[in-house]
Design a protein that fits this description.
6% strand; mainly alpha; two-stranded antiparallel ribbon; elongated
Length: 162
């Protein structure tokens, strides 16, 4: 062993610009999503929001839940679309851009909820993470950790792509 190592290639300037624009989109979109949730909580949980399981969603009419499922699906479509538009034709780069945007959106969604509502009070606070295909309920820490892993994976992919 000679002590030499091959340095990891640095991301090109155009990659960094694309990631910056994706980040701007994700942070802004997270604000919009958080604002919608603020309104929903005011409507359906005027005495405070606390999730103890799927039964905690029973106060939300089925028609409103259907709209929420549609909103969640539209969110994923928008994140996929912006990743495809920003990444050319390389599927690995598209995947990296999607993971980057999704992860930042998810993390900033909780940051905006905290800014707007001072919620969640801590990382172990239970939330409804997603409604598709059925309610996913877990501590807020779970999507944040997964999002951080996605950010790391996206950056690793982008460092290795030509």
């Amino acid at each position: 062993m000679t002590g030499y190592s091959t340095p990891m290639p640095r991301p090109r300037r155009d990659v960094l610009i694309a990631l910056a624009w994706l980040a701007a989109f994700a942070v802004a979109m997270a604000y919009v999503e958080a604002a919608v949730v603020v309104y929903l909580r005011l409507l359906y949980y005027p005495d405070g929001f606390c999730i103890e399981g799927a039964a905690s969603l029973q106060c939300v009419p089925p028609s409103a839940l259907a709209i929420e499922i549609g909103r969640e699906a539209a969110t994923i479509v928008m994140l996929v679309a912006v990743a495809f538009l920003s990444a050319g034709k390389n599927w690995w780069v598209r995947l990296a851009h999607f993971m980057w945007a999704f992860a930042l959106w998810d993390i900033f969604y909780y940051i905006w909820l905290y800014v707007l509502l001072r919620w969640p009070p801590g990382p172990m606070t239970v939330d409804v993470l997603f409604l598709i295909p059925r309610p996913w309920i877990a501590p807020v820490l779970m999507p944040v950790v997964i999002s951080l892993l996605m950010i790391g994976s996206a950056l690793a992919i982008l460092r290795r792509r030509p």
